[in-house]
Amino acid sequence: MSQQINHDAQALREYRKRKSTKEMRMQVTNFAIMIFVTFVAFALVAAELPKEFVIPVILGLAVLQVVLQFYYFMHMKAEKHGISKLFMITGVFFGLSFVVTFIYIVWLGDPLFVKTK
Amino acid sequence: MSHEEAKFTADNWPNHPETASMEGKNKLVGFWVFLGGEVALFASLFATYLALKDAVPSEDHLLAKDLFHLPLAFVMTMLLLTSSLTSVYALYHMRNFNAKGLFLWIGITILLGLGFLGLEIYEFVEYVHQGHTFRSSAFGSAFYFLVGTHGFHVLIGLVWLTLLIFRNRGRGLSIYNAHKFNTAALYWHFIDVVWVFIFTVVYLMGALG
């Protein structure tokens, strides 16, 4: 009987070890992708390509890297993260509206008719 | 004997010790709420920076494309990104009930963070010598406020992680302190998230002109 319990404990230990090793391997893969993305972004800028092309691409790469960071390193892909996601998305919504508004007012549009008056 | 005081071994240590107590569960949700607020804080600083980029009073002030050195920004990015991975290793050891591994990898994370902070201070001193200060232009104010707030977060993270090691090194792992390490690691990852946008928006887009 006690042999059986020992055997079960042993099996459980091995199962958990396998599972966490697999999880860690995925994290390292994720890290490698993030390093690669960073490298591409710096290389694009160093290559002195036209900036109309480079700026949207490096912004896209930044978003990709942040999504990887949230989902894998910060475990947002795990279950029971509904409230976390709600607050994070609310933060991102406000953040984006700040940035878009500022860029529009200062650089693009003329909503207060300062220049056309 | 309450659950938190129970003696744990590698066999009965829970899969997710950081959420095994009610305090741990609440702390995780509460910390994500805080991070949502941090997103709005940093976004407003980014908006200010983008609005005031290269806004200098006269032509003898340096602009973004004259100031930033990509190799330095690249090294800082690599340091911070690697420190994100080492904190994942720390939590991996925590889940395997290996306190020694946890403290070792948190220590490595702290060293990488210190390297990043040292380079940032060196960078700021260099800019001040070139006449780019907090008060020299609106561009300077926006730049130092954005990057400096991030640097301040790095400093807070380093103090936090150091205190965690000193406070818990004699205690060993328990349900009581597992969520403390998890929260600090989340904060450290968030610092890296903000840096991803700083190196893209400030340094890379700055070098493009």
UniProtKB/TrEMBL annotation, chain A:
**Any coiled-coil regions, as ranges:** none
Domain of life where this protein originates: Bacteria
**InterPro entries in alphabetical order:** Cyt_c_oxidase_su4_prok
* Predominant location category: membrane
List UniProt keywords, sorted A-Z. Answer: Cell membrane, Membrane, Transmembrane, Transmembrane helix
The record's GO CC annotations read: plasma membrane
Q: Does the keyword Cell membrane apply?
A: yes
Give the membrane topology, semicolon-separated if more than one: Multi-pass membrane protein
Cellular compartments annotated? Cell membrane
N-terminal signal peptide: none
Q: Which residues cross the membrane?
A: 28-47, 53-74, 86-107
Q: What is this protein called?
A: Cytochrome B6
From which organism does this entry originate?
A: Mammaliicoccus sciuri (Staphylococcus sciuri)
Automatic annotation (TrEMBL), chain B:
Question: A single Gene Ontology molecular function, please?
Answer: cytochrome-c oxidase activity
Q: Where in the cell is it found?
A: Cell membrane
Decide whether keyword Transmembrane helix is in the record. yes
Gene Ontology BP, a term:
aerobic electron transport chain
**Residue intervals of the Heme-copper oxidase subunit III family profile domain:** 29-207
Cite a GO CC annotation: plasma membrane
Q: Kindly state which keywords UniProt assigns to this record, in alphabetical order.
A: Cell membrane, Membrane, Transmembrane, Transmembrane helix
Kindly name one Pfam family recorded for this protein.
COX3
Does the entry feature the keyword Transmembrane, yes or no? yes
Q: Which family does it belong to?
A: Belongs to the cytochrome c oxidase subunit 3 family.
What is the protein's name according to its record? Probable quinol oxidase subunit 3
Organism encoding this protein: Mammaliicoccus sciuri (Staphylococcus sciuri)
